[in-house]
């Protein structure tokens, strides 16, 4: 079998030398475990934080040990009565072709309903992040004007479409290329802009002349500052990610206008999707229906081959994906 190890900790932007592909012997299973041949794995922005040797809400990755993360695969051997050979499962042992998985860490998924990668994207952690962040953290209600950054990415593209499906008055997205902006307009966003085209603050003010009621933040920095500037009284912010800072080697200054939150009586609330698993049932039902009805479309960028997982991850941080970045194994 093969797995990808963290060979060294990135300083700033990760490079391929930070990763190493390692051949391994297949271990024998203990009671309760299953052997899974991975079909597809996820690369996610939060993994960048785990490559630093700092304490966070998830412990750092160890050097010279396999990375891990979301994956979907097929059970090829089982010592757990809850799983049969041939079952498809979603689990946390990505970055390898064959995984020994504790049954407690695996969940059966139905590949006749949706393909494997859907359970990493729209129907998985990504979709729940968008849904719980918008509806619960930001307390979205019909008639709101919503701004989402990182809007052509996995979480962002779902946030905008869910907001439209739930009756947003206006949805505005920002993204990193003209092609992504065009895609957002196709997906039903009312306005979209490329943040490279000038000041985010000015572009947002133009796209939201009546201000915004909800900001779903995937980017941080100047995007957050712009959203504070455009916020209406009592606007709610879901702080989901700050990808503009993940490769930073120095503390970053923006937002410089946080004091505006006082007079505008803003709510800024950070969240981690793991704390919203109680919404998973309601979310999967709604999302399955939206996908079936074509109300929500879901893009993905697929990179082929486990050995290309590091370049998929590096590319994700550079914006080489539209929708969810996944690696087919
Ligand atoms: P995406 O699919 O959105 O991929 C990351 C995107 O970030 C890239 O495609 C790129 O698009 C954009 N980006 C990279 N650098 C910058 C920059 N300097 N400024 C603006 N945009 C940048 O990833 P996800 O949908 O998986 O994640 C989106 C955000 O949500 C991340 O911040 C992530 O950490 C967060 N997240 C948080 C969770 C939680 O529980 N709180 C759970 C899941 C995700 P572009 O071309 O537009 O620049």
UniProtKB/TrEMBL annotation:
Domain of life: Bacteria
SMART domains: PKS_ER
The keyword Nucleus is annotated on this UniProt entry: no
The keyword Disulfide bond is assigned to this record: no
Domain called Enoyl reductase (ER): residue spans: 14-327
InterPro entries, per database record: ADH-like_C, ADH_N_2, ER, GroES-like_sf, MDR_fam, NAD(P)-bd_dom_sf
CDD domains: PGDH (cd05288)
One Pfam family cited in the UniProt record for this chain: ADH_zinc_N
SUPFAM superfamilies listed in its UniProt record: GroES-like, NAD(P)-binding Rossmann-fold domains
Keywords carried by this UniProt record: Oxidoreductase
UniProt name for this protein: NADP-dependent oxidoreductase
């Amino acid at each position: 079998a093969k797995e990808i190890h963290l060979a060294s900790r990135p300083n700033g932007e990760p490079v391929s030398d930070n990763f190493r592909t390692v051949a391994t012997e297949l271990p024998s299973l203990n009671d309760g475990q299953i052997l899974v041949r991975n079909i597809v794995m996820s690369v996610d922005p939060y993994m960048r934080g785990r490559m630093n040797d700092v304490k966070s809400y998830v412990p750092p990755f160890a050097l010279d040990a396999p990375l891990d993360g979301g994956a979907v695969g097929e059970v090829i051997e089982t010592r757990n009565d809850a799983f049969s050979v041939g079952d498809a499962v979603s689990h946390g042992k990505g970055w390898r072709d064959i995984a020994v998985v504790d049954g407690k860490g695996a969940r059966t998924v139905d590949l006749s309903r949706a393909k494997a990668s859907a359970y990493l994207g729209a129907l998985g952690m990504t979709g729940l992040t968008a849904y719980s962040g918008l509806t619960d953290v930001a307390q979205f209600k019909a008639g709101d004007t919503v701004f989402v950054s990182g809007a052509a990415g996995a979480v962002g593209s779902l946030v905008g479409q869910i907001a439209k499906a739930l009756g947003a008055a206006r949805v505005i997205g920002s993204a990193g290329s003209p092609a992504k902006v065009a895609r957002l307009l196709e997906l039903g966003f009312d306005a979209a802009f490329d943040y490279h085209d000038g000041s985010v603050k000015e572009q947002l003010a133009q796209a939201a002349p009546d201000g915004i009621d909800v900001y779903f933040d995937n980017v941080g920095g100047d995007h957050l500052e712009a959203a504070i500037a455009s916020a209406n009284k009592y606007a709610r912010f879901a702080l989901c990610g700050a990808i503009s800072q993940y490769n930073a080697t120095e503390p970053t200054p923006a937002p410089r206008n946080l004091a505006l939150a006082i007079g505008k009586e803003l709510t800024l609330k950070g969240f981690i999707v793991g704390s919203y698993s109680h919404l998973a049932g309601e979310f999967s039902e709604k999302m399955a229906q939206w996908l079936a009805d074509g109300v929500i479309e879901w893009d993905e960028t697929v990179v082929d081959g486990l050995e290309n997982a590091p370049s998929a991850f590096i590319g994700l941080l550079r914006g080489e994906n539209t929708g969810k970045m996944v690696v087919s194994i």
